[in-house]
Amino acid sequence: MSELNPSTTNHIVTEQQIWDALRTVPDPELPAISVVDMGIVRHIEIDNEHTALRITITPTFAGCPALSQIQTTIRECLLNFASTVDVVVTMEQPWTSDMLSVEAQEKLRGVGIAPPPKLGRGPLLPMLMQQKLTCPYCGSQQTSLENAFGPTPCRAIAYCANCHQPFEQFKPI
Amino acid sequence: MSKMTDASGVPVQLRQPLSNFLLSLADDEFILGYWDSEWTGVAPMLEEDVACSSIAQDEIGHARLFYQEVAALTGVSPDHIAYGRKLEDYRQAQLVEHRRGNWAFTIARRFYYEMADQIRLASLQDSAYVPLAQAIAKIQREEVYHQMHIGTWLQRLARGTAEARQLLEQALQQLWPDALGLFEPFAAEALLLEAGILSRPSSALEQQWLTSIAPILGQFNLSLPLEPVPHNSQDNAAGEVFRSLVPARYGGRQGQHIADFADLWEQMTMVYRLDPQASW
């Protein structure tokens, strides 16, 4: 595909351009949120000739089935900027739900998923079990956790007794 | 003890023992994940369909991480490690080999396994093999949800109907020697301990496991072939020590497997054996 990109050799690629481009790459399981807002992009490296990019990402969950699809989508998107794009995966400093951007939290609410509470360095479980979840539809805290497991590894299922809506909770992890 | 930051930093004499150990971790998760995924669609309630599927997916994902580490050490592809081995080259404990059984059997097995896994993971978080320690840090956070899930269900069955309780007791008894088999010492364990890849011998992990499950089962009046060892005066500070009255069933870590696993192996490796190049 690189021969279709005459821009490759003529332009100097900046890191900012790459970040901006990655903001258009959606998470396949939560299309409202980009991989950047998801907090899974760790480093962007550009070689001296501006022809090769190396992007380091980290999975939200170790068994994330979308990971190889994310790698492919990032690669395809960035081939507009360089002739070689490597997308590598690291487990250094594991992803936590605190790495979701403020924008991501807003967008989650918009699609009916309550954002995770901030964890800090605290333990995980009390966050999900003891803290009242806020319904993303009506804002009520008359809610209950129905299942700590949901349609994807990162989501739990809850119910709002006020507006009678089931909703999802992005798990604190 | 020096840290090994990647596969190339592992001394030659440690490569085989390390990959063998990683295979044990991976195969335990892989095989248990396979069996538990069979609850998808047929679990006692819809929530458990979702939970079992999600937990199974996590476990198989963890296995993939460990297979990638083995791949880095051996140069064999992770897919080939997962599906291309002969039956006797798998290293899981026999506990995870039984087909899924009834719901109480699944819960009893998971209870034993999750409690052991928690202790095993904690013992590896400062491993001198850095990629392992990093993978563990990620996995530990996910396992918290599995532990919560199994704690809830153990209580539910133990305090549920007479039939639920009876089935749970039966399964706990039946699986006991296999559960102890999770702590079968690894090949060349002494080498791995000396290198700081493992922090504690399997026997110490087993004792820690016994000490952690005994009060939980005691709380529900569930008895096991287990007795406290009388203290001698110097040991008072060490807390209670337990001893099993029934011997452990070993062999899984050396490649001896039961018939249920042979059936599963046939099934799960079938496509790969037919066409190792297939992609989907």
UniProtKB/TrEMBL annotation, chain A:
Position of the signal peptide: none
Gene3D superfamilies: Fe-S cluster assembly (FSCA)
Domain of life of the source: Bacteria
InterPro entries assigned: Fe-S_Maturation_MIP18, FSCA_dom_sf, MIP18-like, PaaD-like, Zn_ribbon_PaaD
Start and end residues of each PaaD zinc beta ribbon domain: 130-171
Domain MIP18 family-like: 15-80
Spans traversing the lipid bilayer: none
Family annotation (Pfam families): FeS_assembly_P, Zn_ribbon_PaaD
Protein's name in the database: Phenylacetate-CoA oxygenase subunit PaaJ
Native species: Dictyobacter alpinus
UniProtKB/TrEMBL annotation, chain B:
Coiled-coil portions: none
Protein name: Phenylacetate-CoA oxygenase subunit PaaI
Species of the source: Dictyobacter alpinus
A GO-annotated cellular component: cytosol
InterPro entries: Aromatic_CoA_ox/epox, Ferritin-like, Ferritin-like_SF, PaaA_PaaC, PaaC
Pfam family, one: PaaA_PaaC
PANTHER family referenced in this protein's UniProt entry, alphabetically: 1,2-PHENYLACETYL-COA EPOXIDASE, SUBUNIT C, PHENYLACETIC ACID DEGRADATION PROTEIN PAA
GO biological process: phenylacetate catabolic process
SUPFAM superfamilies on file: Ferritin-like
